[in-house]
Amino acid sequence: QVQLVESGGGLVQAGGSLRLSCAASGRTFSSYTMGWFRQAPGKEREFVAAISWSGENIYYTNSMKGRFTISRDNAKNTVYLQMNSLEPEDTAVYSCAATTYRAPTATMAQAPSSYDYWGQGTQVTVSS
Asked: How far apart are CA 109 and CA 34, in angstroms?
């Protein structure tokens, strides 16, 4: 079992930045590919970014590439999502997830069904 706890969400003005963290406990964190997803009210869950166990493979949704950066610190069992130039459309609950696929393809990394463990999520609200 892996437990995931997100933090770092909050209210920010458009153009601002936030850094989300996802702390993992349980089995070996470095074995997992980690992903970030988000879900806005009334919308389906949306892939944001993923990073493989080594950090060698990183994937982003095109609309977020250049604004969001995913990273991980295996020594701290934590994955991060740095979000810059935030827009009101980025308002959502952001959740991290873990999958045992160590080097997934882009298609696999973007599919919620690929992930075995999920955190509870953290709310990000961007005001205009």
From this structure: 9
